[in-house]
Specification:
The structure holds 2 protein chains of 2 kinds. Chain A is mainly alpha-helical. Helix content of chain A is about 70%, strand content about 0%. Chain A has 11 helices and no strands. In chain A, helix 9 (about 200-235) packs parallel to helix 10. The relative contact order of chain A is 0.14. Mean pLDDT of chain A is about 85; it is low at about 1-10. Chains A and B meet through helix 4, helix 5, helix 9 and helix 11 of A and helix 1, helix 6, helix 7, helix 10 and helix 11 of B.
Chain lengths: ~300, ~325
C-alpha cells in the first residue's frame, strides 16, 4: 500500500514493467508527501498497538497497582494516575481499543453510506429522491447529540456496541460525498456507452463506476474512521463511554473527573491526548492525500 | 427568492424538528418498556434517592399517561414539545426543564456565535491570502501551523489552553463564565469580566475551526484564479485590492457560506464539550450534569433544543443565501 516501502534492491528479479510501475509509485509518493506522511503515522500507531501488549505488563493497568499520582520517572515513563495505574500501560492498552472503535464504526458507516450514496447519485426518480431526503434530514441533525440520547439510554456500553451505535449515525457524510461524486460521474461518456452495451444499472455501478470511485471510497473510509473516533471520544468525555474499558477517551474522562488539569497532573491527560492528536493528524493527512490522488485539480505541480 | 424555495426550506426545518422529536419519543420506549420505571430503577441502583421521589414519579406518570394508547401518547408528546414544555426535571425537581434550558441558552449562543463568526472571517481572509499570488511569503507558514490544529477536537485543544494559560501562567481564569461572587448586572465591569472568562473557551473553538475555513477558501481561490472575470478585471486595470476583495474573494466565498450551514451542527456538538472542559455555564454544562445525574428527561430536552437551534440556524442561512449569491434563482428543475 505504501509507496515508500518499495525497495530498489530487488530490481533484478522483476520484469521491467513492474519496475517502471514501482518507479511511478515512488515518484507519485514524492509528489504526494501528505499521503505518505499520513500512512507512516497510522502504520506506526497500529504497529505500536499490535506489538506493545507483548512488551508491556497488562497488570499495570489495574487500580492500586502502584502509588498514586507519580510524575514521569524511569520506572513509570509516563507517570501514574490517581488510581495508581501506570500511564504507559494504559495508553498501550487504550490505543488499540480506540482504533478498534474507529475501524468497526468507520467500516460499517462506509458500507451504509456508500450504498446509499450510489443509490442517491445514480438513480433518478422516487428512490433517489427519498434517499436524498433521508440523508439531508440526518445531516441536519447533529449526530453526536442523538448519540448522547441513545448512549444515555443504553448506559452499559461496550467498545463493540458503542462502535455499532456510532456507525448507525456516522454514515450521512459518506453518503453525501459519494453521492455527489457519482452524480458527476454518471454524466460522463462511459456511462451511456455502457448502457448502449446493455449493462444494467447494478452492473454499471459495480463494473464502471466502482473502479473509478476507489480513491473517493478510500478517502471516505478514512474520513468515516476519523468521525467515528471523534464521536467516540466525545461520548467518552461526557462519561457515556465503556466504563470498564480503558480507551484513550475514557482515560481523558477519568482525568477530567479527578480535576487532573488544575491539580497539575499533566501526564494523566496529556499522554492520551498526544496519541489521539497524532491519530487525527495521521488520518487527516491520509484523507487529504487521497483527495489529491482523486482530484487532479488539487494535484501539486512538480 | 421564490415562494416555493421559502416553503421548501421551512418544510425541511419542520421535518427536522419533527424527526428529532420522534427520535426522543421512540428511543426510550425502544430501549425498555416503561421509561419512568426504568429511569427510577436506574437512579436507585446508583444510590440516588431524592426526598419526595414518589411525588416525582406521580408527576411523570400523569404527564406521560402511560396507560393510554401509544398513538395518543405520541400526539400529546408532540403537542408538549411544540410548546417547549418538557415537564419538570428530576435532578432539580420541581424546576421546569424548559426554564432551566432557557437560562443556559444565552451563554451557549453568545460563545458560539462570537467564535463561529470570528473563525469564519479570519479563516476565509487567511485562506484567500494563501490562494492569492500577490500575498507575502509569511502567510504560507500558516498552513503547517493551523492545519494540524484543525484536526484536533476543540475540547482537547481547550485542555491544553487551560493548562498553559490558566494553570501554568495564570493569565486567564481556570473556568466559569464570570468571577465567583460577581454581581450579575449590566455594568461595564461585569461585561469585561464575562469577556475575560470567554477568551480561552472561544479561542479553543476559533483556533481549530479557522484552519478548516482557511483550507477550503484556499482551494476555492486557486480554482477561481483562472476564471475569465479575473482576467477581465485585471485587463480593466482595477486596483489589486479591488480585484482581491470584489472579484476573487466575493466569488470564492459562496461555497463557504453553504459550508457554514453544513458544519454548524458539528460546531455546536463540539462546543457542548468545550463547555464541559471549561465549566462554562451553558447548554453543555447542564447536559453534563444531567448525564451524571441520569436525568433522562433533561437530557432529552437539551438535545431537542440544540437540534432545533441547529436547524433554525441552517434555515436562516438558507434564506439569506439568495441575497449573498444573486446569480442563483431558485426555480424547480
Amino acid at each position: 500500500m505504501s509507496a515508500a516501502s518499495a525497495a530498489p534492491a530487488t530490481t533484478e528479479s522483476r520484469s521491467p514493467e513492474t519496475w517502471s510501475r514501482r518507479r511511478e509509485w515512488i515518484s507519485y509518493g514524492r509528489r504526494n508527501p501528505t499521503l505518505i506522511a499520513g500512512l507512516t503515522i497510522i502504520t506506526v500507531i497500529v504497529v505500536f498497538g499490535l506489538l506493545a501488549p507483548f512488551i508491556i505488563d497488562q497488570d499495570a493497568t489495574r487500580t492500586t497497582a502502584f502509588s498514586k499520582d507519580l510524575p514521569p520517572s524511569l520506572d513509570h515513563p509516563l507517570g501514574t494516575d490517581s488510581f495508581g495505574r501506570d500511564m504507559l500501560a494504559l495508553i498501550v492498552v487504550g490505543t488499540p481499543q480506540t482504533v478498534k472503535i474507529g475501524l468497526i464504526a468507520g467500516f460499517m458507516a462506509l458500507i451504509i453510506g456508500s450504498t446509499l450514496g450510489f443509490i442517491q447519485g445514480f438513480y433518478r426518480g422516487p428512490i433517489g429522491t427519498s434517499v436524498r431526503g433521508v440523508t439531508d434530514v440526518t445531516l441536519t441533525i447533529p449526530a453526536l447529540l442523538i448519540l448522547i440520547t441513545v448512549a444515555s439510554q443504553v448506559r452499559q456500553v461496550t467498545v463493540e456496541s458503542m462502535a455499532i451505535i456510532i456507525a448507525l449515525l456516522a454514515w450521512p457524510g459518506t453518503t453525501r460525498a459519494i453521492g455527489s461524486q457519482v452524480l458527476s460521474m454518471r454524466e460522463r461518456a462511459f456511462v451511456p456507452i455502457a448502457r448502449f452495451n446493455g449493462m444494467s444499472g447494478m452492473e454499471i455501478i459495480f463494473k464502471e463506476l466502482m473502479p473509478n470511485m476507489l480513491p473517493y471510497l478510500g478517502a471516505s473510509f478514512v474520513a468515516a474512521v476519523s468521525t467515528a473516533i471523534l464521536f467516540a471520544i466525545g461520548l467518552e468525555v461526557l462519561g457515556l463511554g465503556p466504563q470498564t474499558t480503558n480507551t484513550l477517551g475514557m482515560t481523558i474522562y477519568w482525568s477530567q473527573l479527578h480535576s487532573a488539569v488544575i491539580r497539575g497532573l499533566w501526564w494523566w491527560w496529556l499522554s492520551p491526548m498526544v496519541v489521539i492528536v497524532t491519530l487525527f493528524i495521521g488520518l487527516f493527512l491520509i484523507s487529504h492525500g487521497l483527495d489529491e490522488l482523486a482530484n487532479p485539480r488539487l494535484r501539486r505541480r512538480v | 427568492m421564490s415562494l416555493g424555495y421559502l416553503l421548501r426550506r421551512v418544510g425541511m426545518f419542520l421535518l427536522v424538528v419533527w424527526v428529532a422529536a420522534s427520535i426522543n419519543f421512540v428511543i426510550p420506549r425502544l430501549a425498555r418498556g416503561d421509561p419512568i420505571q426504568a429511569q427510577f430503577a436506574q437512579l436507585e441502583t446508583l444510590g440516588i434517592r431524592t426526598s419526595g421521589m414518589d411525588q416525582v414519579v406521580a408527576a411523570y406518570k400523569k404527564r406521560l399517561g402511560l396507560d393510554r394508547p401509544m398513538v395518543e401518547q405520541y400526539f400529546s408528546y408532540l403537542w408538549n414539545v411544540a410548546r417547549f414544555d418538557f415537564g419538570p426535571s428530576i435532578t432539580y425537581f420541581p424546576a421546569d426543564i424548559g426554564r432551566l434550558i432557557v437560562q443556559r441558552l444565552p451563554w451557549t449562543i453568545g460563545l458560539l456565535t462570537a467564535s463561529t463568526i470570528i473563525a469564519f472571517i479570519v479563516g476565509n481572509l487567511l485562506g484567500a491570502l494563501l490562494g492569492w499570488p500577490g500575498s507575502s511569503r509569511w502567510v504560507k507558514w500558516l498552513v503547517p501551523v493551523l492545519m494540524p490544529l484543525s484536526a484536533i477536537p476543540y475540547y482537547l485543544l481547550g485542555l491544553i489552553l487551560i493548562f498553559t494559560f490558566a494553570f501554568t501562567f495564570r493569565l486567564f481564569p481556570l473556568g466559569g463564565a464570570y468571577s465567583t461572587g460577581a454581581k450579575i448586572e449590566l455594568a461595564p465591569a461585569f461585561t469585561l469580566d464575562i469577556l475575560y472568562h470567554s477568551i480561552l473557551p472561544a479561542l479553543s473553538i476559533v483556533l481549530s475551526v479557522t484552519g478548516f475555513w482557511m483550507l477550503g477558501m484556499r482551494g476555492m481561490m486557486v480554482t477561481n484564479m483562472g476564471e475569465d472575470y479575473m482576467i477581465m478585471a485585471e485587463a480593466k486595470g482595477l486596483s489589486p485590492m479591488r480585484i482581491f476583495l470584489r472579484y476573487a474573494m466575493r466569488n470564492a466565498m459562496l461555497p463557504q457560506v453553504t459550508g457554514l450551514a453544513l458544519t454548524f451542527g458539528g460546531i455546536i456538538a463540539g462546543s457542548v464539550l468545550v463547555e464541559v472542559i471549561f465549566d462554562y455555564p451553558g447548554m453543555g454544562w447542564i447536559l453534563w450534569y444531567a448525564i451524571r445525574a441520569t436525568d433522562y428527561f433533561l437530557i432529552q430536552g437539551i438535545v431537542f433544543v440544540l437540534v432545533v437551534s441547529v436547524a433554525l440556524a441552517m434555515l436562516v442561512l438558507d434564506l439569506l443565501y439568495p441575497f449573498v449569491d444573486r446569480r442563483i434563482v431558485y426555480v424547480r428543475r
